[in-house]
Design brief:
Layout lengths: L5 H8 L7 H10 L4 H10 L25 H25 L10 H19 L3 E2 L8 E3 L8 E8 L7 E2 L5 E10 L5 E11 L9 E5 L13 E4 L1 H9 L1 E4 L26
Parallel strand pairs: 3-5
Antiparallel strand pairs: 1-2, 2-3, 4-8, 5-6, 6-9, 7-8
């Protein structure tokens, strides 16, 4: 269809023949691919694979939200890492830069959080919450169980607690990631906990207020962050912990309850 002999095409594929732009254009036309896409696909074959979570770093005695399994959790997180990998592949082939270099760090984390939430929707029983802004995800009510929500936040700051515009109660996931030299991301710490709302008698949140960014002059919306008790709950619930990158021996703790046996601090 391209007017090229199979012997010449075989020589191209094996690096034994030279080619012209006209040859590439003929191939792209019969493959119904834009020329730029044909070239980028050739590079992608040698660009490696997205990172995946290591089975040994899962802590399977840690309780997860109702209906969520560790297998589903791994699938959702690996899917997120793969999506970021593919986005950066395309950006590098088309414009020569990565997504991280185009947007601010907090916006990048927000995008990763959205991708992770979408991966949960695809890979787990937890689906997008279209009825209200909080929580991000819900596991629907059944004949025997109540609806359960899950709020999702991602951060590059390992060990960081939760941050919210509402400080609500319920299940929260704080997912900490690193950016590799390849521009891929890899999650190194996943924390789950049921947090008390800021209006609870023993809240896990403290009011941070509304601050002005000194660099941009913009004002942030009303914000709550987890206090030390809330942060300790999250750290206790470390469902995935890469000890090669997460050093927690000096992290502070504060509890109003007995330390659970599954805590990373339990000896």
């Amino acid at each position: 269809m391209a007017g090229i002999s199979y012997q010449y095409l075989s020589g191209l594929e094996n690096g034994k023949e030279n080619f012209s732009i006209q040859v590439l254009e003929a191939l792209s036309q019969v493959l119904n691919l834009p020329l730029s896409r044909l070239v980028s696909l050739a590079y992608q074959q040698n660009s490696g694979q997205a990172p995946t979570l290591r089975e040994a770093h899962f802590r399977k005695d840690v309780p997860l939200p109702k209906g969520l399994s560790f297998e589903q959790l791994a699938k959702a997180v690996n899917h997120t890492q793969n999506i970021v990998h593919r986005i950066n592949q395309n950006l590098q082939s088309e414009v020569g830069c990565t997504l991280q270099s185009l947007i601010q760090g907090n916006n990048f984390s927000g995008m990763v959080s959205n991708i992770l939430s979408n991966s949960f929707d695809l890979c787990t029983p937890y689906k997008h919450n279209h009825h209200q802004r909080y929580p991000d995800l819900v596991c629907p009510k059944t004949s025997t169980t109540e609806e359960v929500g899950l709020e999702v936040k991602t951060t590059i700051n390992i060990g960081k607690g939760g941050e919210s515009h509402n400080g609500h109660s319920g299940w929260h996931l704080i997912a900490c990631y690193q950016i590799l030299e390849s521009s891929d991301i890899i999650f190194v710490h996943l924390m789950f906990a049921i947090l008390n709302g800021h209006q609870d008698e023993e809240p896990d949140w403290k009011y941070l207020g509304s601050r002005v960014n000194e660099e941009t002059g913009s004002r942030r919306t009303e914000t709550y962050i987890t206090n030390l008790k809330g942060l300790t709950k999250l750290r206790d619930g470390s469902a995935y912990l890469d000890t090669e990158h997460v050093k927690y021996s000096r992290w502070r703790q504060e509890r109003s309850r007995v330390m659970p046996q599954y805590s990373i601090f339990a000896v």
